[in-house]
Amino acid sequence: MVKVAVAGGSGQVAREVIDALVAAGKHKITVLSRSKASPDGTVALGVGWRVVDYSDTGALVEALRGTHTLLSFVQLLSDPGCQSQKNLIDACVTAGVKRFAPSEYGYGSVGSVNLPFWKGKEAVREYLKEVNEKEKVLEYTLFMPGLFLDYLATPYQTAKHIAPLDLIFDYQNCRQFMVEGHEDAIVTLTTAADTAAIVARAVDHDGEWPVNGGIRGNRVTFSQIVKLGEKVRGRPFTINKVKLEDLQAGVLKTPWILARKHSAVSDEQAPEFSTAVPIGMMLTSVSGAWDVGDEFNRLFPDYQFTQMEPFLANVWEGKP
Questions:
Q1: Per-residue pLDDT tens over the stretch 103-123
Q2: Do the Cβ atoms of 70 and 52 come closer than 8 Å?
Q3: Are residues 36 and 155 in the same domain?
Q4: DSSP 8-state code for residue 43
Q5: Do residue 280 and residue 176 come from a single domain?
Q6: Do residue 200 and residue 247 come from a single domain?
Q7: Tens digit of pLDDT for each residue in 139-176?
């Protein structure tokens, strides 16, 4: 048993992972949070709760004394300049924390130039490289499951904590965006439950973590997502193809936009994100950003990942 700290533990992805760690029953878990109140049920699960100030590195060091692994889920939109995560990294080194996982849980190792709202991921990756430049002082991995397969069930919720979210793949209304000439761009889709289960296994793992921590549930093309959608929905999809040059110019020429926003996006930010998200997703898919590796698949070859077709067939059976 080791001590595991979870920064930003009240978020959706964090709570999925916390549940998986609690179910494993192998470690002492403490949530680090700015909030003085824990979400309903977290403390009842036997998880500790510690209020921290992410701007106070000295206090973070004290909070992390004796910690083996720190999993960060700090919300990037609320961490200007990524200072909170940089302070956590510094505190880990000083406190002697062995392992750190930054707030990733998305696309692969391709840069975030077309995903400005995720620019912080790149900054933290670079900071971790700098910290370990002369010698390895902090082991880390980038947990990358691609997109959550659960989002293709929107508006139905299939994960305990991950809420439905509109994407460029809309199974409810049988429609999808696609870049003209790039119909075979790759997307990795992994359920939230599988992602959490792999993270829990990674915490248990005695060997060294891979830096690029790909978690590959399903590796499919845009065209295959349409084909499967038509099969499980029993009707043809409307494909809205966009030109690459329009996306590169920041222009989205589509008859519909993403209406459902992520909980981290404010009402003021929502109009901008309804355009920036689909443009960013399509541009990065063309560059291969969502074709994540299978590093953790190979590390845990016995794990059986949820497959798209039976999962989505079960979700959409009998739905209008």
A1: 999 876 655 567 777 778 889
A2: no
A3: no
A4: G
A5: yes
A6: no
A7: 999 999 999 999 999 999 999 999 999 999 999 999 99
Task: Classify 82 in phi/psi space as left (phi over 0), alpha (psi -120 to 50) or beta.
Answer: left
Q: By residue range, what is the domain housing residue 21?
A: 3-145+191-214
Segment (H or E) for 143: strand 142-144
**Residue type (1 letter), 164:** P
- d(CA 287, CA 150) in angstroms, rounded, equals 24
* pTM over cut 0.85: yes
Does one domain contain both 198 and 263?
Answer: no
Helix (H) or strand (E) holding 238: strand 238-242
CATH of the domain at 279: 3.90.25
Cα(318)–Cα(320) distance, integer angstroms: 7
Q: How many Cα atoms occupy the beta-carbon half-sphere of 184 within 13 Å?
A: 0
Positive or negative: CA dihedral 126, 131, 134, 137: negative
Say how many C-beta atoms besides its own lie within 10 A of residue 52's C-beta. Answer: 21
CA distance 134 to 129: 10
